[in-house]
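Escalation from tier 1.

The customer reports that the assembly of two entities below gives different structure tokens on two consecutive runs. Tier 1 could not reproduce it. I'm attaching the input and our single run for tier 2 to review.
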Amino acid sequence: MAQQMVSIFLAAILTENYILNQFLGICPFLGVSKKLNTAFGMSCAVTFVMVLATAVTWPIYTYVLYPNNLAYLQTIVFILIIAALVQFVETVLKKYMPPLYNALGIYLPLITTNCAVLGVTMLVLEKGESDPTFGYLQSLVNTFGAGIGFMVAMVIFAGVRERLELCDIPKSLRGLPITLVSASLVAVSFLGFQGIVDNLVK
Amino acid sequence: MAKSLMHEFTKGIVKENPVLCLVLGTCPTLAVSTSASNAIGMGVAATLVLVCSNAVISLLRKVIPDKVRIPAFITIIAGFVSIVQMLVKAYAPDIDKSLGIYLPLIVVNCIILGRAEMFASKNSVLPSILDGLGMGVGFTAALLLMGCIRELLGAGTLFGMPITSGFMPPIIIFILPPGGFFVFGMLIALASKLSGQQKKPEEIGCAACPLAASCSKLVGSCEKEAKE
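Tier 1 run:
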């Protein structure tokens, strides 16, 4: 059990990294990774919303939609839940936890249409379909791992970008193109993790 | 009149290409461009959603209150995405399998929400439909270009037919994630070089993004912090 959790968690960070292997959440990855502290704040907010969203959508799908043959409503129900959830979290934080709101508040409106959040809630359900041992707890661990993986990729990339600022780059490559090429190099380094999790946890 | 309608259609294909010039919808562009047929499937599905949602949002533009417009747009878009999802599942199960999670994720594709916010909510039905069609064709064309490059270099095939098997081994990294980032970066560089713009795409398509207001607030507050 514990072993399964560790392997799910590590796999979500290293081999199934949402940004670098599955291309989910590229917009914040390119848009907010210019400074280390914004990259970190954004990833905290994404992780928080991801775990909360899975905690809510998993039981709704498993106990309400699926038994009533409403699985085809998944997309529309999930996006509305996430949108409502983000709004709710923002209001609650503003009222009861102002320090946390000041730290995460500005990132929250950006998260509603983040494909990593909608993606994770659907991907864990897909995994549960093919593997019956993959239940609620496993889904939450996977989601948390995905959030941490998002953070790792954002923070590493923010470091790379801060160095890029000092470089002399050919004119047409300046700005976005060179950012994408360096993202490609970071993704190459994550390819090196293929297979590492299975061997580590065995 | 006819000329301006034509303009609405053609601007999305070259001048304001949503992928290469406005840099919207990066996630599906990178993820499904591993082969040319995937690219076409994704492009057609997104175009369908874009045209339908643009038409409906344009019809409802006077009914939807300004404050709740984004949730209203998202609901409309999600409805059409569910329809397209079911159609693809029923008539093209292979495409459904290879697009996987990215098919429902059309709902958060910022091209669609972006066009709803920037164009359909301000214009009448016919121009909105043409705008959606043009943007959809531009999206499909860019995806197809990337899909062809990556499939040709990474697998040595084109639409599944072997092309380079005789003289060049496939460079597998091009169909892996890093190849996606690399080809996309190079295409954007090429597009900005060819168009000879003074203005470089320094940032991702912030001006065209529906969340630009909150995002620029974010970047602005960070810069202020850094100065202090």
